[in-house]
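Tokens as discussed.
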């Protein structure tokens, strides 16, 4: 039986492991509950507890102080759909098959909801997950953007105005196919602003704060906890859109940050354009979604609204966390905070994600496991989000197939100094002749571009990734070593390699 065939057998092929039971049962004797708080596009260093001078994240900081923070965590793919598929399936993109934001998650790959459901959990997903089509992937209880629009009623137009055009990454449409035949139903109905591209620099939202998507997710998560937390263990994923665009926070969060006080990143305007791949150079020279960001004042406005979006998301995450406490669920619930990918936020003159630089491929990851994770600790080992599902399954004594890609991090959750020397991998734009692949091994980060120059950075001496050592002959052996490790993990299709050889 092949690996894919074994995965396709779903729950029938589960391998039961014998593990110590400590930390996996609540005081009542049942399995621990699991709450996953998820954000979209949270830059990894944008946490107060990480020492960020501007970001206001008091609720996430408090969560980190009561648990374990992984300060060198990476997504598997710096774009929404494939990254989220890795989080929920424990598989890399080339194995789970959700290659991009337009590819539905293949049904045969089971998710955390399937595995936890088989172990007696009630599973709920409230908020964004970007499944692309109408599959529910094993969740018993599901609320998403379309339910929010039903709640908003006529006020949905305010959100359509904020997006200005179809934007499935921001949930309108929530499923592309719903508009594919007849076209965008909001065309000609929206009140358009003066933006130059599809994504606005930002402004204060006209949607009342209680009606924002984040408020909806928090409120409905609390409702779920009140109704469904007593009779069986639960898995609840509360998934917010912010700080992802639209950069249009509620007024009180926008008031926290003044554009003129925002500093541009140290790397702004300082990248040697001759030492980076052409695609990166072009993105620096012209940001297609928001062309205005070439202007420093517009960039400062975008940065201020990003921090405001982040502060609003943190506030709503705090509402869910307080409900755990108020409902006396805190001691029996493992809590995770994670983002699907980061945000460049002007670093290198780049915006959004799509890159393997730290701000884009790195993510915040916090685990609070009562009775397991020591409080206020930090693990600096590089780790991958593909390990999140195996970690949570072990903490909750839930069986998984032995064929998943990630390795459990429970040892690091218990003791952050425990060595974890496995390299971290990521990939992007699979199925495209311009795909790229990344490995981080110790302090080295190497990127193989199928159509352009490679990149090599020493993160110990060059944490801002400004000196591409792959172009220097004295680092040739290091490049060869990392490329060999990368190809032993996943070898790009021969057609991509032939295309590169012709360049």
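Sequence:
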């Amino acid at each position: 039986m092949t690996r894919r065939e074994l995965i396709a057998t779903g729950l029938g092929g589960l391998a039961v492991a014998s593990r110590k039971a400590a930390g996996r049962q609540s005081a009542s004797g049942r399995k621990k509950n699991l709450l996953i708080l998820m954000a979209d596009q949270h830059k990894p260093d944008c946490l107060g507890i990480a020492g960020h001078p501007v970001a206001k994240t008091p609720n996430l900081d408090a969560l980190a102080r009561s648990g374990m923070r992984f300060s060198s965590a990476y997504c598997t793919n710096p774009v929404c759909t494939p990254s989220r598929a890795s989080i929920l399936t424990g598989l890399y993109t080339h194995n789970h098959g959700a290659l991009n934001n337009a590819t539905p998650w293949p049904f045969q790959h089971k998710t955390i909801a399937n595995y936890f459901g088989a172990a007696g959990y009630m599973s709920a997903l409230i908020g964004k997950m970007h499944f692309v089509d109408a599959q529910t992937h094993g969740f018993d209880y599901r609320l998403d953007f379309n339910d929010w629009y039903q709640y908003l009623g006529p006020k949905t137009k305010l959100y359509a105005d904020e997006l200005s055009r179809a934007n499935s990454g921001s949930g309108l449409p929530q499923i592309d196919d719903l508009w594919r035949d007849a076209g965008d139903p909001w065309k000609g109905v929206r009140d358009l602003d003066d933006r130059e591209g599809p994504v606005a620099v930002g402004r204060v939202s006209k949607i009342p704060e209680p009606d924002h998507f984040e408020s909806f997710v928090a409120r409905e998560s609390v409702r779920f906890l009140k109704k469904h937390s007593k009779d069986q263990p639960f898995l609840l994923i509360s998934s917010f859109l912010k700080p992802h665009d639209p950069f249009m926070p509620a007024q009180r969060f926008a008031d926290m940050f003044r554009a003129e006080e925002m500093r541009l990143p140290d790397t702004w305007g300082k990248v040697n354009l001759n030492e980076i791949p052409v695609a990166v150079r072009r993105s620096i020279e012209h940001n297609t979604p928001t062309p205005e960001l070439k202007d420093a004042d517009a960039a400062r406005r975008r940065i201020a609204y990003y921090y405001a979006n982040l502060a609003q998301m943190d506030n709503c995450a705090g509402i869910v966390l307080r409900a755990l406490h108020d409902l006396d669920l805190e001691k029996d619930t493992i809590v995770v905070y994670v983002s699907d990918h980061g945000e460049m936020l002007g670093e290198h003159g780049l915006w959004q994600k799509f890159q393997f630089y730290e701000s884009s491929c790195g993510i915040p990851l916090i685990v609070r496991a009562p009775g397991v994770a020591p409080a206020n600790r930090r693990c600096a080992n590089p780790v991958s989000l593909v390990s999140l599902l195996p970690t949570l399954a072990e903490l909750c004594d839930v069986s998984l197939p032995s064929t998943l890609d990630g390795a459990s991090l429970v040892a690091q959750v218990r003791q952050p100094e425990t060595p974890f020397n496995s390299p971290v991998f990521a990939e992007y734009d699979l199925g495209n002749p311009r795909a790229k692949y990344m490995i981080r091994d110790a302090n080295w980060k190497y990127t193989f571009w199928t159509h352009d120059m490679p990149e090599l950075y020493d993160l110990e001496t060059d944490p801002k990734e400004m000196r591409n050592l792959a172009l220097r002959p004295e680092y040739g052996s290091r490049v060869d070593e990392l490329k060999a490790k990368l190809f032993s993990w996943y070898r790009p299709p021969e057609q991509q390699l032939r295309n590169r050889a012709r360049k």
